[in-house]
Amino acid sequence: MVQRITHAVTPHSHDTAGKTDTALETSSRGMRVLAVSFAVLMVTAAVQAVIVAASGSVALLGDTLHNLADALTAVPLAIAFSLGRRAATRRYTYGYGRAEDLAGIVIVALIAVSAALAGYEAVTRLLDPQEIRAVGWVAGAALIGFAGNEWVARYRIKVGKEIGSAALVADGLHARTDGFTSLAVLLGAGGAALGLPLADPVVGLLITVAICFVLRDAAREIYRRLMDAVDPALVDAAERILTSVNGVRRVGSVRLRWIGHALHAEVEILVPHDMSVITAHGVAVEAEHRLIHELPRLRAATVHTDPDGPADADHHATLTTHRPH
């Protein structure tokens, strides 16, 4: 009985060892993705650099630099994943998971720079077309660049969605923009082989437009994460889970937010007003337990219990003036 009463006055915040292990595993998966993609892109850039030296292709040089920059975006993300493993402190009470969002801002900025550079190079070549030597080798290098970037993009986006990392998804989209740049080099080389020197800059401008669309998607993803947006379907699922808990009459507010690639929840449930404190606490604990184990990637939940009734009672009257309207 003493243990039950003691537990009744503790906050209803539930963070299981299993969820902690899962969080560490998702960070480990993220680090593996970064390591593998870094290696693939560095090899791709190295192969292209050799062909740049032999062909003198300015377009391929730009593509090589883009691939090198894309590989280096793994650095801020790796730092973010490492920081995310650190324990919460009295200053950073929610931990360091939001470092991923800061890394996402850096990645969006790099996509914007890629778009600007691609556009600049396309306009420059449009005004002053350049002859390309060893067209076949340039085309081969462009294919290697496109294949490497697209493979990395799919890998990053897939794992990023699975572990809930918006920054890793944005980094995958960044890799895809560099793949588009490689495709522009390939099409430009094909045009040069057909005696159409303006094909390279024209295609480059079209690819710049495509990169801008990718930039929009990545920026929107990071903006929503910074603004604590979540998929409304997650809120619906949380409400269904809470409603199914025995003893819960109604569900009040449900707030979800991403901290890194883990979800945190703050919810309100209403229970019968004549229910004992210990029984109401048991309902809250069960609600926490169900949420954490049934809502994907939810690491911690705080459940606030309110009495439902009597009809003429206002249990929050003293807080009315302190709540936003």
TrEMBL record:
UniProt domain Cation efflux protein transmembrane: residue ranges: 35-227
Lineage top rank: taxon: Bacteria
Domain Cation efflux protein cytoplasmic residues, every copy: 232-307
Membrane topology: Multi-pass membrane protein
Locations listed in the record: Membrane
TM annotation in the entry: 33-58, 64-81, 102-120, 202-219
Pfam family for this entry, one: Cation_efflux
Region annotation Disordered: where it falls in the sequence: 1-22, 303-325
Chief location bin: membrane
Entry keyword Transmembrane: yes
Alphabetically ordered keywords of this record: Membrane, Transmembrane, Transmembrane helix, Transport
Classification via NCBIfam families: CDF
Name of this chain's protein: Cation diffusion facilitator family transporter
Species in which this protein is naturally found: Nonomuraea salmonea
Record lineage: Bacteria, Bacillati, Actinomycetota, Actinomycetes, Streptosporangiales
